[in-house]
Amino acid sequence: VSADDDPKVAALAALRQGNALLDTGDAVGALAKYEHAMALYPSPKLHFNIGEALLAIPGREGAAHESFTRFLALAKDANADVK
Known about the structure:
Elements: H1 7-23, H2 27-40, H3 46-55, H4 61-74
Helix pairs in contact: 1-2, 2-3, 3-4
């Protein structure tokens, strides 16, 4: 199944791209990828990644807190070992 055929596959690709960007310090770029992933395949687990990116952007701590709160409330089946 290709990303063109399956929004979940495309969202996973965007998530991985966001993780790579966050690892290099590009929190703004990572946030864009995470938000794109969320638009393609809304998953409560993405709120964690969005929160991480927001936390790394000065002045966005409040939005990060909101995203982490959404993650905790909605992602009941999240695996603690998966980023």
